[in-house]
Amino acid sequence: MNLNIFPQYPFIGYFIYVAIILIATLISVKISSLLINRVSKRFGIELTFKYLLKDLAKYLIYIIAFLMILDIVGIDINALIVSLGVVGITLGFAARDVISSFLSGIFILADKTVKVGEVIEVNDVKGKVTKMGFRTTTIVTVDNLIVTIPNTVLAKNPYTNYTFFDKYRIDLNIIIPFNVDIGNFEKTLIQRVSNLNWVLIDSSPKVDIIEMNENGIKVKISAWGENYSRIDCYRLDLANEVRKLIEELD
């Protein structure tokens, strides 16, 4: 391609055309994202598939732009493809994790075991899925931390999808002083916890003894709620009820 619009400064022409391609690429990515949003909203496409479509369109636009830039600077694309075939094994080995994550993302999408908006736990990390791409999945924990998980982790490790359940158990471990009557404590606490407005009436709260140590009796208090995003608030409610009851019985 002859881009010698400034014969005395040949590189200026290359620079201008490359800049135009880069700007057009950014605009194209933005437009493709808006179009996918509109199409998804109109036809009810689920969020998981929408994010993957955005990734696919973005990568395709980047590849086209890259090939156009190579053509502008005078690199023979056919020769480059042949050369890549020679070094492809080396590059493939170096990028095996990226390729593995990419393929894992496709398999997860096909299996539909994880979707945007669902609550999952993998490798002791629990949170709500906010974005799924070909390489990574992003979740937000109850502590409002953003965690990016390679799709290979989801593909190679067992994980729990809590969205399949309609209720969640809230546990609280505490130590009861020896001078507190454990029987009276258990009976009274279960009554009070049952009266909390978020506790599900079809799953009774319970108190389990874990162990005894020099500080007192360690117990686990369990109750069931249905709003995952408020689990920390539920646990705080349990702690307040325990504190007030121990002060009364002490």
Automatic annotation (TrEMBL):
Domain Mechanosensitive ion channel transmembrane helices 2/3: 56-95
Predominant location: membrane
Name of this protein: Miniconductance mechanosensitive channel MscM
Record's keyword terms, sorted: Cell membrane, Membrane, Transmembrane, Transmembrane helix
SUPFAM superfamilies with a match to the protein in the record: Mechanosensitive channel protein MscS (YggB), C-terminal domain (SSF82689), Mechanosensitive channel protein MscS (YggB), transmembrane region (SSF82861), Sm-like ribonucleoproteins (SSF50182)
Gene Ontology CC terms: plasma membrane
Family to which this protein belongs: Belongs to the MscS (TC 1.A.23) family.
Topology relative to the membrane: Multi-pass membrane protein
